Amino acid sequence: MEGASGRASGRPVPRQPGQPRRGRRRRLFRFGFWSLLSLAAFALALIYAGMAASGRVIRLPDWVTARLEARLNEAFPSGALGLGRVEFGVSARGVPRLALVGLAVRDETGLELARIYRLQAGLSVPALLQGRLEPERLYLTGAEVTLRRRADGTLDLSLGSRLGASGDLAGLLDAIDAAFARAPLAPIAGVEMDALTITLEDARSGRIWQATDGRLVLRQDAEAVDITVAFDVFNQTEELAEVELGFRSDKASPAATIRAAFKNAAAADIAAQSPLLAFLGVLEAPISGALRSRIDASGALSDLAGTLELGAGALSPTPGARPVHFETAKVYLDYEAGAERLDFPSIEIEAEPGEVSGQGYLYLRDYSGGWPGTLLGQFQLESATVRAGDIFENAVEIEAGAADFRLRLDPFTLEIGELSLVQAGTVFTISGEVAAAADGWSLALDGAAEALARPQALALWPRALAPRARRWLAERVSQVELRGLNASLRIRPGAPRRVAAGAGFEGFTGRVVRQMAPLEQASGYMVIEDNRFMAVAESGFVRAGGGAGEAGEGGK
Asked: Exposed end of the chain (fewer CB within 10 Å): N or C?
């Protein structure tokens, strides 16, 4: 009873021999558990910090790789994903990352569409603490993608009947929007790729392009998906072409904005990318530029505008025709979708013979397979200069001009309805056809002018045309006016060049023969055929012995 009375009185009860000290054990247990937990957390923090600082990763067991590959294929609508291994790491900023190494994407036939050396996912820490793997950002390294363009220009991006685009660019952008609107990509704010290689197998042109050292950055928000891709492309020279593409696609509709900037690309390569740029296909030259276009809510191209700058190159529509060289060219363009018209607010071309500037537009006609076969154009010439050299003895300034023409791209045939040029107040008109074939160039041009005074006739007389007649006009004729000038030029492969010109003349004063007195106030006509020249005076007079004698009709 003593023990009972002792507890009742509040006095401590002596511990019996062998009885455990329960309070101290509980305190020791609580201290040991929390200490071990703290030590474990501290160790994990050290490991986490060490992984962040060193960049080291942990390879997860093979069964984790197998389960994750199975889960990915269950979520993949069609085709198949192959996975090499899975690694866990921490970024320098302390963000946990899961890396998928050796990822391959195949379609339903087993054809490999993409291979990614390394795909890293920056994981959401709150989701990770709740036991969920939810990526916030994706980082890809060494991805290899193959795109196939069909003969009609559509892209083969389908991964099966349930996933893919319709084939055109609008469908592709819609597919990207749809992919980022659902799991597992919906929570991802951005995707970054480097060391990207893209191969384009183009059935339309029969060529293969390979873009190397590429970088892709994708950002998305509630309204749009924004993609920027930069890469290098082999342009058949010692230098690589630099290309940057940008796409901003509205999630609520097919509307999208497309940007393209390129440097040192091949003109033919740029021409192969859009029917609107098909006219560049006849040029061999490096090209740089920036273009911007929009796809409207219906999925159709609504406009295109930009600048193109060409370096030294040539007009070379077919291998058999001798290239026509130029030094530089700069073009501003703007496309009107409703009229199928390509406007050129400014055109500047510089070549060894001279330079020209103007503006105009082209209508795209005779489509076949989605590509125009004919261009109908009208251009206004603002200024032109032909430098002194092989063509003319002195520089010739063209004050204004206009042209309407039809250009057939294959075979290359330029039909000139009328080209009018204004020089020193005189209007010259030219019409005809220029064509390029496997055996060379063909030209059939006709020109006319109402009147030419002697200085203007000498300035516009080509140095290679009947040079002895030109020298006679320069040295022995002091005054003359040509009326009703007509000229023609015919060039055909394998045949001699044919040149003909004819005009009436009035007010002729000059020495027909060096030893004779001058013929004055003569009128008649002149003819040039190739290098033969003939002038016929039908009236005029020669002063002899202080008087004047009529030349009469038929004098030559």
From this structure: N
